[in-house]
Design a protein that fits this description.
The complex is a heterodimer of chains A (200) and B (250). Chain A is mainly beta and 200 residues long. Chain A has helices at 60-64, 93-100, 179-182; strands spanning 22-23, 45-50, 56-59, 69-76, 81-92, 108-113, 118-122, 132-137, 140-141, 151-153, 166-172. Chain A starts with 21 loop residues before the first strand and ends in an 18-residue tail after the last helix. In chain B, 14% of the residues lie in helices and 32% in strands. In chain B, strands 4-3-6-1-2-5 form a 6-stranded antiparallel beta sheet, with helices on one face. A 5-stranded parallel beta sheet of chain B has the order 9-8-7-10-11, sandwiched between helices. The longest helix of chain B has 13 residues, at 139-151. Chain B starts with 24 loop residues before the first strand and ends with a strand. Classes of the chains: A mainly beta (200), B alpha/beta (250). Chains A and B meet through helix 3 of A and strand 3, strand 4, strand 6, helix 3 and strand 11 of B.
Chain lengths: 200, 250
């Protein structure tokens, strides 16, 4: 290990912080590659397609009518900030997949956004209570700059996997790199393994 | 690889092959320059020089005796060259663990661990028309683009608009001015400056916008959104705009 002359680090290390991350406190940095879009809930849709028995699309009212599910915990951005003890409300991706019914050959998903943004994930990372489509943050509507009206939430992976302005999931039998993944970022992005960039 | 984005946001521009991040490596600080009261440029000699493109960034990692580490990304301000050295301009942020250390403790001759280059989106390939808009220290990656263009005799491809609070906040003040650059002061201008202090507006942009230009916007989240809106108002399609936003902490 290479030590840095004169550096001690001044913060108590919170055990909830993965390696290389710091606690951003009450801030919530905004990091996106594209302009923040204005999406109307009147025309908003979320769809599941690809390797499923029954491709499905939900309107804003339809998805809001599904049983809600909450996440309370931490989120971790690859740019090294983490936000601890946050809460989101939305619907579990499991609930949505129960309708679309993945085929046995489905093993990956490509999440898509209304902006054209994409990100890829193993199907296992969005099932089993690990992923949500969320529209509330801390009890209030999710702001547009943070992905509102609704974003994907996959909090056990780096936050670029939690696609803002999410428009759907495409189920695939192979891993297809998304936007940041084509631009040098890791295909899975586990913060506890520091899978930040391709090759980590 | 961009097929799935065709006709949609993030699709603009041809894909550019870009260098991938190498391993962590040791670098030595060879020069430190004060740019503004809150920004310093650190020139680093890499032990294993790597190619990079204008707009990419490097990570600096600090390691304490007990193994505690902190790392942050900083844009490269220098144009790619074969010197084996890179320049990172670091804005000192209030309560910034890494930026404060770099400003207060690091001296010429110190070693710093770095890794890069990072990023394949906010990059300028060097041969396409572009409108660059930087807010505050958001000028840093744009400076790498301007330096590259000037060195290659292709400054005609670029128009750079820099927005800063006041004259003291302007990085690269002696080097920036030129026919390609416009400086916008939002709070206080130099004496007898023709434009009154005020926020960026469409009239500050080149008119007409260069045909086929890509927009590169860099700054705080608020600035990036505002500058994107101004570019759109001036007629640039939103899908032709690439944004790099700085978080408020560091």
């Amino acid at each position: 290990m290479t030590f840095t002359r004169g550096f001690r680090g001044r913060r108590e290390r919170d055990p909830r912080l993965p390696p290389g991350q710091y606690d951003v406190g009450s801030d919530w940095p905004v990091l996106t590659a594209e302009a923040t879009p204005t999406l109307s809930t009147a025309t908003w849709t979320f769809g599941i397609e690809g390797l499923v028995e029954k491709p499905a699309t939900w309107t804003w009212d339809e998805i809001r009518a599904l049983p809600t599910s909450d996440y309370a915990g931490d989120i971790h951005c690859v740019t090294t900030w983490s936000k601890l003890g946050v809460s989101f409300r939305g619907v579990s991706v499991d609930t949505l997949l129960e309708v679309a019914r993945p085929l046995p050959s489905a093993s990956y998903v490509l999440a898509t956004s209304h902006t054209g943004y994409t990100t890829n994930l193993p199907l296992d990372d969005v099932t089993g209570g690990k992923a949500w489509v969320v529209w509330e943050f801390e009890g209030r509507p999710l702001a547009a700059q943070h992905g509102g009206p609704a974003r994907l939430l996959v909090p056990h992976l780096y936050f670029w996997k939690s696609a803002k302005w999410v428009s759907g999931l495409r189920l695939l039998d192979h891993d297809e790199p998304g936007f940041w993944e084509r631009n040098g970022y890791h295909d899975r992005g586990d913060p506890w393994l520091e899978q930040r960039y391709q090759g980590d | 690889m961009t097929d799935q984005l065709s006709g949609d946001g993030l699709a603009s521009g041809r894909p550019v092959p870009f260098p991938r991040p190498g391993k962590w490596q040791r670098s030595t600080v060879t020069e430190i320059r004060t740019e503004t009261p809150t920004a310093k440029t650190f020139r680093l000699a890499l032990t294993e020089p790597v190619p990079y493109l204008a707009g990419q960034h490097f990570i600096v990692r600090l390691t304490a005796p007990d193994g505690y580490r902190a790392q942050r990304s900083y844009s490269v301000a220098s144009a790619p060259d074969d010197s084996g050295q890179i320049e990172l301009t670091v804005e000192r942020l209030p309560d910034g663990e890494v930026s404060s250390f770099l400003h207060d403790v690091v001296v010429v001759g110190d070693d710093l661990e770095v890794r890069g280059p990072i990023g394949g989106w906010f990059i300028w390939p060097g041969d396409t028309p572009a409108v660059l808009i930087g807010g505050g220290s958001g000028v840093v990656p744009l400076m790498a683009m301007l330096r590259l263009a000037r060195r290659n005799g292709r400054a005609d491809l670029l128009r750079l608009v820099v927005s800063v609070r006041d004259p003291a906040s302007l990085c690269y003040a002696s080097e920036l001015p030129g026919p390609q650059t416009t400086i916008v002061y939002t709070r206080r201008t130099p004496a007898s400056w023709p434009r009154p202090a005020g926020r960026l507006r469409p009239g500050d942009l080149p008119a007409p916008l260069p045909a086929g230009a890509t927009g590169y916007v860099c700054g705080s989240a608020g600035f990036a959104d505002a500058a994107t809106a101004v570019l759109c108002e001036a007629g640039m399609p939103v899908q032709d705009i690439r944004a790099e936003r700085f978080g408020p902490t560091g």
